[in-house]
Design brief:
With 287 residues, this protein is of the alpha/beta class. The chain has ten helices and nine strands. The strands form two sheets. Strands 2-3-1-4-5 form a five-stranded parallel β-sheet, sandwiched between helices. A four-stranded parallel β-sheet has the order 7-8-6-9, sandwiched between helices.
């Protein structure tokens, strides 16, 4: 059975992800206590279910330490298990809760455990949840949904579930330094040293995927040299990450606005590596 375990910080988009996955034909269960995971999988297997998405969150705080050993058991039984962990910056989460005017799911639970009558702030709830979910965060692939629209996240999740089993998935992600470095990258390369197409009025409205921008950058010897340096770094260390049984390796490429130089470099790197690796492409500022 193909099993997708989903977890993450409240407000980071788990409901959006589950809806997309359910639409893709997965059997979905939300807020599953980890103690029921093995039995549920056995039941679904008997019923002939081939794809299941199971969400585990902080409301099962006292059982989260058992998730990693249970995943090992499931894999030993022959199941393909993939873990997605959604997160976002605290500023983004606060803004989302403010927009929906909903209380944090842990607010009442944590308040009941406190001796004092002081009301817990939203920031305190978010921090407490990060600590509770720490055992799950690095079991699989972390997706930072900060500054992502719901539609953008839906497309990313569709890409995730479309990727067939591979020993390692190589993710190339462009972003804007002016917005901030994403939380989900393993390595960051800064391409702001390259000439900026933004200052050419004809190129400004385009992106790094447009041929005119590609031609502009590839006329710069340093752009090709920087590409070679990044490519060679990945080529050298990728086998080590595979031996470490990593499922994902995310390479972040940043420029000022996340529109021209970083997009160009991501597309060029992805084109090179997709000849021999499973590759996904993400552009944060090009929705």
């Amino acid at each position: 059975m193909r099993i997708l375990l989903i977890s993450g910080i409240s407000g980071s988009g788990k409901s959006v992800a589950l809806n997309v996955i359910e639409d893709a034909g997965y059997y979905c269960v939300d807020n599953l206590p980890p103690s029921l995971l093995l039995e549920l999988v056995k039941t679904l297997e008997l019923e002939g279910v081939k794809n299941a998405a199971l969400a585990i969150d902080s409301r099962s705080a006292h059982q989260l330490q058992s998730v990693a050993p249970t995943i090992d058991q499931l894999r030993a039984l022959g199941h393909e298990v993939k873990v997605l962990f959604l997160t976002a910056s605290s500023e983004t989460l606060i803004a989302r809760f403010s927009e929906t005017r909903r209380s944090h799911p842990l607010s009442h639970h944590l308040q009941a455990e406190r001796i004092s009558d002081c009301t817990l702030s939203l920031t305190e709830c978010i921090q407490a949840e990060r600590e509770l979910l720490a055992p799950l965060q690095f079991l699989g692939h972390v997706i930072d949904t900060s500054n992502l629209s719901a539609n953008h996240l839906r497309n990313w999740i569709k890409d995730e579930i479309a990727v067939e089993h591979a020993s390692l998935i190589l993710m190339f992600e462009s972003f804007a330094f002016k917005v901030g470095v994403p939380l989900d990258v393993d390595f960051v390369f800064d391409v702001r040293i390259l000439p900026n197409p933004h200052y050419d009025h004809a190129l400004r409205p385009l992106t790094g995927r447009d041929q005119a921008v590609v031609d502009f950058l590839e006329a710069q010897a340093m752009a090709l040299e920087l590409f070679d340096d990044i490519k060679n770094f990945i080529d050298k260390w990728l086998p080590s990450f595979k031996r470490d049984n990593r499922s994902y390796l995310t390479i972040g490429i940043g420029c000022t606005g996340g529109q021209h130089r970083s997009v160009y470099m991501v597309e060029k790197l992805a084109k090179h590596f997709q000849q021999q690796e499973r590759v996904l492409i993400r552009h944060r500022q090009n929705h």
